Amino acid sequence: MKIAVDGMGGDFAPEEIVKGAVAGAREYGVEIALVGPEERMRQELAGHDCSGTVIEVVNASQWLVEGEHPGFALRQKRDASIVVATKLVKVRKADAVISAGPTGGVVAAALVILGTLEGMSRPVVGGPFLGFAPNTIMMDLGSNVDCQPHQLLDFAIVGTVYARRMLGIKDPSVALLSIGAEEGKGNEQVRETYPLLQKCGLNFIGQVEGYDIASGRANVIICDGFVGNIVVKFGETLGKTIGRWLEDRIAGRLPESEVREIVADLVLATNAADARGGGPLWAVDGVACVSHGRSRAEEIARTIGQARLAVEQDLVGALKTELAAARRKLGMPDM
Amino acid sequence: MKIAVDGMGGDFAPEEIVKGAVAGAREYGVEIALVGPEERMRQELAGHDCSGTVIEVVNASQWLVEGEHPGFALRQKRDASIVVATKLVKVRKADAVISAGPTGGVVAAALVILGTLEGMSRPVVGGPFLGFAPNTIMMDLGSNVDCQPHQLLDFAIVGTVYARRMLGIKDPSVALLSIGAEEGKGNEQVRETYPLLQKCGLNFIGQVEGYDIASGRANVIICDGFVGNIVVKFGETLGKTIGRWLEDRIAGRLPESEVREIVADLVLATNAADARGGGPLWAVDGVACVSHGRSRAEEIARTIGQARLAVEQDLVGALKTELAAARRKLGMPDM
Predict the structure, then answer these.
(1) Counting C-beta atoms within 10 Å of the first and last residue's C-beta, which end of chain A has fewer, N or C?
(2) pLDDT of A335
């Protein structure tokens, strides 16, 4: 298996990316296509022990930077590292691509070069985001706002495939996020989506409210990307805020190293996406994993692990099968 | 000043309600009209030292119970304690009403008996909800879902009056909750509301994202009640979840009483609405304060304090003035 790594994407590129690529190659036993300016990539590689790994350098003379308009940047920079890396997947020279570059650019490259699965217009992002509820996935987390009911249904299918293939949960329970548990409580979007979820053949357990997000009651919690994005960001900051408060409260009462450890564990548990490394962009016709911009070598290596798992588990094929099955159940035309 | 207290509303009615009414009367120097079955109210009062307080019993032979359909219950139970108590405000025999009864019933009674301010169709609920950001109010928290832009504008006005009159903040900053700080990032509702907020004469500072809810960046955060309800409930449970985790982590390392105190403070800081007691139902043409169903005497007393503040600060009058001013700025017809 070969993973294409965007060597120039991320706040700490290329140093940390190359370091992570070497670590990932060794840890997960995959070949790497390291994409970026050839000279620079080779210089970075020279600083590491690459024995026992297969790392090929693929030249790309340009790269995206944070703040550029994604569409515009892609048209201007046809030899950008993310473009070259994603094309390797398209022409089957690599099985997956990973990048810590600007999310908009990575998404745009995936959309333009790989395309989306039929019937889905935008990538779906999500995953477990709380260490306290490691088997709970929320989708979407910001890629899709102003969603139609059929999009929320798609998130439920994506989430089910995610939970089954990436988390090993046999029959993932799916719930619709709302302001009350009873059917009928919620907004128009929720009321219109409910009957679709009832009939689609997934393990739909009804509505859950904000109280249930951290409780692990459902494996897959479905919401509009507007709501999901706000909830996840709020939870991350609340964890950090509580961490700072706690540090003040227990400093001097416990050994310093213990205080640091407790606070770090708390922040990690409320920022679980950081801990996991990047995840796949769902609904894309190929495996493309995005890691956050501030990723260091460790996260890059973990993202390579996620990409390997996604390829092994044939996420794209599984998702196509599930989408078709749900649409048949609902009497929707095959796409 | 006289506050009508629904003596039969709440999980611990009438015992805790009556106890709280006596405490509130003494603490805040207000007269109380205690509404409920006369005999039962007098029996409860007999168990307390009422010296130095003015507490009048007003008979009501019925009361609402949790789980009833609010509208139906109000039609069936015309002598319900919440109805009788709210009517005291309508006929100016009391300055405010407070209840820990079923929220739907309290809201319905306020709507039917007191009515809403012109141009507003439903009560607005909200207030500070995080101890870490005591000067940040979020509105709406669940009463209004599927909001139009003009409703979000109304929340901004309500929030500004709340922050000014109840929290003593001179020029409260107002922000629109979205998925990014830049104008244009967000859903259709946000994009349509943005220009209204820019022109309405409030201290509008733009959009904030989930990261900013706990940071205190804005005094008034505006959102659809669907989003607000989910965020607040998530924060409350996350606080409790972290509390339990922390207890396990530090138990045995610190004296038991300190562990208990730290965890209790954490839960309180993430469940600040509990700490504050009930708050006013905004947009209602009169002062009606709802406390949660599990309120004990202490919360009932605090809610009486909130009601007194609301009356003293002439919330209803201030809100009418602010609404008219904002509508004039926007060139909307006077209501």
Answers:
(1) C
(2) 56
| Contacts with A, B 9-28, CB within 8 Å | none
Give the pLDDT of residue B277: 66
Task: Using CB atoms, pick whichever of B177, B238, B239 lies closest to residue A230.
Answer: B177
Q: Which residues contact A174 (CB under 8 A, 6 or more apart)?
A: A156, A159, A160, A197, A202, A203, A204, A205, A218, A219, A220, A222
pLDDT number for residue B104: 85
In this structure, how many other beta carbons lie within 10 angstroms of the beta carbon of residue A221? 26
pTM value is 0.91
* Residue of A213, A237, A269 with shortest CB distance to B234: A213
Domains of chain A and CATH, by start = 1-120+281-315 (3.40.718.10), 124-276 (3.40.718.10)
ipTM of the prediction greater than 0.85, yes or no: yes
Q: Is B235 in contact with A238 (Cβ distance < 8 A)?
A: yes
Task: Looking at the complex, report in whole angstroms how far the Cα of residue B235 sits from the nearest Cα belonging to chain A.
Answer: 7
Q: Do A210 and B242 touch (CB under 8 A)?
A: no
Residue in chain B lying closest to A143 (CA): B179
